[in-house]
Amino acid sequence: MAQNLKVTHYRNLDPIPNVIDNGEWETLTTGAYCNYDNDEAYVATYGRLYNWYAVNDSRNISPVGWHVPSDAEWKELEMYLGMSQAESDATGLRGTDEGGKLKEAGTIHWYAPNTGATNESGFFALPGGYRASYGDFLHMGYIAPFWSSAESSSSLAWYRSLYNNNSQVSRSSNDKEIGFSIRCVKD
Question: How do the domains of the chain map onto residue ranges?
Answer without folding.
Answer: 22-186
